[in-house]
Amino acid sequence: MWGPCLAVDRGVAAVKLPTRAHMRKTLESVRAAAALILSALDDGETRGFLDAASPGTIPDRLAICHLMSDLVRRAEEGVSWLVTEGGKTKVGRSRAVPPGSFPPKTYCAAIIAEAWSFVHGVEPAPTNQKAAAAAAAHLFWRAPLEGLSMEETKLALEWMRAKDAKKSWGEPLNGWRRHFKEAKEPHVSEMRKKIRCHLTEGKRQAEMFAGA
Length: 212
Description:
Oligomer: single chain
Number of helices: 11
Helix content: 55-70%
C-alpha cells in the first residue's frame, strides 16, 4: 500500500537537498521565466508572430496567462520563505525545504506510529521508540517492501530488539526517536489521517472476507 511512496522517499533521502541560496536562485529563475512569457503574450507584435506559427492562434491564451501569473506569485512566495526581512538569504546548516514538509524517515515513522496506535490504542512510548517501534521503522525503511512476510518481519524485529542494547544497532535505532517525535507534530496530522483511513479500510475488508 505504502511501498511505492516509501520507495520514492528513500530515493529522495539519498539525494542531497539544495541549499537555500540555490533554491532561491531557482525560484527567481522560475519567476523571471513566467514573467517573460506573460510579457510576450501581452505584447501584440510578439503575440502576432506566435499566433502566425503553425498550427495557428495560441489556444487558451487566457488560461496560459493565468497559469504564468500563478507561477510568478508562487515563486515570489517561495523566495519569501528563504530570505530575511532585509531580503538576504537565511543562513544556517538547514537545507531548503518548503513549510509543512518533513523528512522521508518521519513519514516512515508516522506509518509505524499510526499502525502501533491502531493496534494498541496508544502511541509508542519513548521506550518503544528506542526498541520495538524503532526496530520496526528501521526494518520498514531498509528492507525490500515486496515479498516481506509476517514471519520474516517478526524474526527480524526480535533480532534487532535483542541487538538494540549492543553497539551494532544502538545508534541507528536511537536515530529514529526524533522522527517519532516529529510524527506527532500538527503538520504531519493530515498524512496520518490518511494512514488511519487505509488501516481502518483494510481491517473492514479483512473482517468482511473472514465473515464471507
